[in-house]
């Protein structure tokens, strides 16, 4: 799995299993 940027939990950013960055 590729290394994804670190995001704080609850920031509205989710890293998918495939490494896709999803913003909510």
Q: Order the strands across the largest sheet as they lie in space.
A: 1-2
User: Average pLDDT across residues?
Assistant: 72
Largest sheet data: 2 strands, antiparallel
Q: Name the beta content range.
A: 25-35%
End-to-end span in angstroms? 22 Å
Count of strand segments: 2
Question: Any key phrases for this structure?
Answer:
24 residues, mainly beta, two-stranded antiparallel sheet
Give a structural overview.
- Residues 15-24 have a biased composition (Acidic residues).
- Residues 1-24 are annotated as: Disordered.
- This protein is mostly beta strands and 24 residues long.
- A two-stranded antiparallel ribbon has the order 1-2.
- The radius of gyration is 8 Å and the shape is flat.
- Strand 1 and strand 2 (21-23) form a beta hairpin.
- It is built from no helices and two strands.
List the helices and strands and how they pair.
Elements: E1 13-15, E2 21-23
Antiparallel strand pairs: 1-2
Biased composition (Acidic residues): 15-24
Region (Disordered): 1-24
